[in-house]
Amino acid sequence: MAMHAESDPIRSRLDLQPAGSPELWPSIEWFASDDESIVLARNGRDPGHGVDAIGTGPATITTLLSVQRWQPRWIVSAGTAGGFNARGGHVGQVIVADGPVIHHDRRIPLPGFDQLARGGHPSADLRDVATRLGFVSGPCSTGDSLDAPPADIEAMAAHGTLAKDMEAAAVAGVADRLGVRFTACKVITDIVDGEIATAEEFRANLATASAVLADAVPALLADLPA
Ligand code: ADE
Does 29 participate in catalysis according to the annotation? Predict the structure, then answer.
């Protein structure tokens, strides 16, 4: 997970206790359940800037070092995301990843490198689980900006993106390379194609969406195939 505001409610809901940090990158924080069956890995604060280290770079490092330490059976990229009016999105909606997760903001029009840029790493098929829990399953995509210039909007429309976040594709890339099953669980804080400025809508809804996430993630974890 990326943000304190998103992860603190889950930490308390699951009673996850501090479980150390990687020696090499001590700003990453781990929190574990008593039996260590659940570990929350948080990117932590960027030491230079003093804010939560959001985005794909930190997500890659956190995922790699966390797999090395904990050797998980599943990786879940959990957090908030932007949704889309055009595709039925609304604030508070819970999205579980379905299909490949792409980087919608990386463009390299050279053979082979175009696909490298896109990512497109798989997510597990959890459509039945999502339906049972009352969540929506659908395409997720990732970019390193909170806003969305026209080229990104086009890429997300072509992908059918339901959840636009800043980490999932990076986490999925590491999971794919290391052979760990992956999913994403995202709660919508703002509507990308809506009327309200994204940063304003995100700030207004972050706390309530994070409370929804604190219900959704434990329910999803309890229902993941063994
Ligand atoms: N997280 C929450 N809302 C987002 C958005 N609109 N874009 C990227 N990440 C987000």
Answer: no
